[in-house]
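Pipeline run #58 for the internal structure catalog. This entry was flagged by the ingest filter as a single-chain record with no existing model, so it goes straight to prediction. Upstream metadata was stripped on purpose; only the residue string is passed forward. Reviewer on rotation: M.T. Logging verbosity set to normal.
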Amino acid sequence: MKTIFSFILLVLVGCLDVIEPQSAEQNNIWVELDPRLDLDENGYYHLQIDTTSWQTLHRLSGTAYNNDVPFEALKVYWGSSHYWYIGDTLGYVVNMGLTDDLEYVSYDTSYITWFTGFEVPTINCCSYSNGDGEVNTMFAPVRTMISDSVTISMYYYNDAGNPITTFFDIVLD
């Protein structure tokens, strides 16, 4: 019985493919950044701020690859050099109801005030690539930041578990 078991074990082990470990220098995972903004001759991207609104929303994009094939479910971390603080009122809620004649009326307004001094980042912290490798995050500077230069960081982990970081600057026009 021991002989038969040893023979079966030898055949199974001998037929397995040997997988070579990847070296720490290999980087088969990478992200191609596409901020969807104009780039000037100094290497700065430019975003036009909407002065009719408090925040300007802009989607920053990229594509994740593994061995030059679009890569799904890569977690990408984002950071920004800028943030802002909420003032004394975040907003308000208007309660509405129906009259006996079925007309909508406002009967109460509640102001949301408990966020005073709350720090608000200008970029979402993280995102995952989809089935096509596309990765996106929202960047939302406020109008008081006009003429500032914001540094954005993007990082993810490669095959060896090492962080790969990219920095780029956006001028707020």
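catalog note: The two ends are 81 Å apart (CA to CA).
catalog note: The longest strand covers residues 163-172.
status: ready for reviewer M.T.
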